[in-house]
Specification:
By secondary structure, the protein is α/β, with parallel strands linked by helices. The protein has a 7-stranded mixed beta sheet with strand order 5-13-14-16-12-19-15, with helices on both faces. It has a 5-stranded parallel beta sheet with strand order 7-2-1-11-21. The protein is globular.
Length: 593
């Protein structure tokens, strides 16, 4: 193995990206004794090789768990909303590690927002730890996938054990949601393989809360002494809790604190942050073309280097993976970058009076900022899902009331609709809405939008940055996607009404490109093992490889499961195979395994 901070100059596999999915693949390859180098465009937080990642370059690489530091995470992750999450100058942004420089550009012609993070751990740095499996019908009954749902189950099970993934604790806001779901006629879903409508606690990759924080525990101590989940609702700010814990003991099991340590512990994985890949290198092979390496640029020095390997894996995400492919001049059969899905989000909020809350949940405020950010959900296979989605107040004011594409609320006639107001709210009315934040329950609708060739990523030849032409993202919903989103918004409104809300508001949200899937889809660009159809020795292991939007379920669990599976196919095809295959699921896919 290479030593801490050493330069792996001759890896077996080079991976572009060290975000949410790539560490799963690297971990699995490392377990087989395959040397893996990950090139990550963003910073590496909580690592002693990079003690000040936003002001100094630090070392070039990290290859040891000895480099990981909980103390540094405490210093770098503050839990302040703007400090961590600002897309312009926050620590978790799409941009270079150097805080003095501007974010990297993308071209988005239509109204919309892209929410992605550069850095080791990628977008799992600010995700909510949600790990539901794909809806079974979205794989077995939609025509997009070349594999069956049962093929993913062993990898789901493996990840659920190692993160681990557990049902979110029931906090007051979840009690309110569940009561609304029950009164709306839905049943509790008890299994992990979702085929029918039902509500349930979110399966989350977040440690269970300390026993002291249970309602009847009457905890009145120092929260710095609490282990596990502190219920502080800071997942979006990086999940910094509990303070003082070791690096691997942070409650939220994002890839940075869960899978990266496991990958490094194999002794066969090195991560090189601040390395932006600019070209996939190829050569003639037995077939028409095969990948042999990657050219990348150091984001601090501007120096360009090349690294060669027996196989290349692209895991830069649904936008940058096709951008790199296209900037490298690789073959395009018409589906590279296309088929992008986003879950076509919308938001519906309910405001409750204190007496109603006292009757339903035994307290006079919802207190949305307490508990896990997203701890309860309603699944509607064929339509999507609805989840409690707790933003901090600043983001709530933005996405819930200020970014509608349906005009101003005072312009919209809501007669006959299940919501009282719909659209953008400003001025005094916005202040009144936000003054009720602590008595508000906000729901997010995840639409099962379907892949279409018109949606996706191309190159904007008129706009270049230091890494070449930037990505242009075109996405608009199909009328059938709009119908599914409307259906979910009405279900969310009914749930809130049944729970006793006295005012319901629908945002009519502008596109938020947060859950991104299927821009390099298996079955279109990739074969069933994750290898490119037109370039040998080139694999994709990020959410772009998903064949669709997995029905509206949060995609991280499926992306990581598929990355584990792709690692095994890569090892079988180009190395000595897999010595310890993850066992096939012995039960049918419909069982509650």
């Amino acid at each position: 193995m290479t030593g801490s901070g050493a330069d792996m100059s001759d890896p077996d596999v080079v991976v572009v990206g060290a975000g949410g999915d790539a560490p799963a693949l690297a971990w699995r390859l490392g377990q087989q004794g395959i040397d893996v180098l990950l090139l990550e465009a963003g910073p590496f937080h909580g690592n002693e090789q990079f003690p000040a990642p936003h002001s100094e370059r630090g070392n070039t690489a990290s290859a040891s768990t000895d480099d990981l530091s909980g103390d540094l995470l405490d210093q770098q992750f503050t839990a302040r909303e703007g400090d961590m999450g600002s897309p312009v100058d926050g620590k978790l942004r799409w941009g270079p590690a150097d805080a003095e420089r501007a974010p990297w550009a993308r071209t988005v012609p239509q109204t919309g927002v892209i929410s992605q993070v550069a850095g080791v751990g990628g977008t799992t740095l600010h995700y909510y730890g949600n790990h539901p499996r794909a809806f079974v019908p979205s794989i077995n009954e939609q025509p997009h996938w070349p594999i069956d749902y049962a093929d993913l189950v062993p990898y789901y099970q493996h990840l659920e054990s190692v993160h681990p993934v557990k049902p979110a604790p029931t906090t007051p806001k979840a009690e309110l949601f569940f009561e609304g779901a029950r009164r709306s006629g839905y049943d509790l879903t008890t299994g992990l393989n979702v085929e029918d409508e039902g509500y349930r606690p979110f399966p989350n990759a977040i440690h269970q809360p300390d026993e002291a924080l249970r309602r009847d525990g009457d905890y009145d101590g120092d929260f710095r002494d609490v282990s596990g989940d502190t219920l502080a609702c800071h997942e979006h700010q990086g999940g910094p809790h509990p303070r003082g814990a070791d690096f691997e003991e942070r409650a939220k099991r994002g890839s940075l604190t869960s899978l990266v340590p496991k990958a490094l512990a194999t002794g066969h994985v090195e991560i090189r942050p601040n390395a932006f890949a600019t070209e996939v290198l190829t050569r003639a092979g037995p077939g028409p073309l095969e990948a042999c390496g990657v050219e990348y640029r150091d984001t601090w020095t501007g120096r360009t280097r090349r690294v060669f390997a027996d196989a290349v894996v692209l895991a830069a995400g649904c936008i940058e993976t096709p951008r790199l492919w296209l900037n490298s001049g690789l073959p395009d059969d018409g589906w590279v970058g296309k088929g992008l899905t986003t879950h076509h989000f919308d938001f519906v909020s309910g405001t409750f009076d204190s007496d109603t809350l006292e009757d339903v949940i035994g307290q006079r405020k919802v207190e949305p900022h307490q508990g896990q950010a997203a701890g309860s959900r309603l699944d509607v296979p064929g339509k999507g899902g609805i989840a409690v989605n707790t933003f901090a107040p600043g983001i709530t004011a933005s996405v819930m009331f200020s970014e509608s594409i349906d005009g101003f609320a005072f312009e919209n006639d809501t007669t006959g609709e299940p919501w009282d107001t719909h659209g953008r709210v400003t001025g005094t009315k916005l202040k009144e809405e936000m003054s009720d934040y602590r008595r508000m329950l906000t729901l997010i609708c995840h639409t099962d939008d379907r892949p279409r060739q018109d949606n996706g990523v191309t190159l904007d030849s008129a706009t270049e940055d230091e890494h070449g032409p930037v990505a242009r993202i075109d996405w608009s919903p199909h009328p059938e996607d709009d119908e599914r989103r409307d259906d979910l918004a009405r279900r969310a409104s009914k749930l809130l009404d049944e729970a006793g809300a006295n005012h319901i508001h629908r945002a009519g949200a502008a596109p938020i490109l947060l859950h991104l899937q299927s821009s390099m889809a298996m079955g279109k660009v990739l074969d069933s093992g994750g290898e490119a159809l037109s370039v040998d020795r080139l694999f994709v292991a990020d959410h772009s490889a998903l064949a669709n939007g997995v029905g509206g379920a949060n995609p991280t669990h499926t992306g990581q499961a598929l990355a584990l599976r792709t690692a095994e196919h890569l090892a079988d095809r180009y190395f000595d195979g897999v010595s310890d295959p993850i066992p096939a699921n012995p039960t049918p896919a419909s069982a509650d395994d």
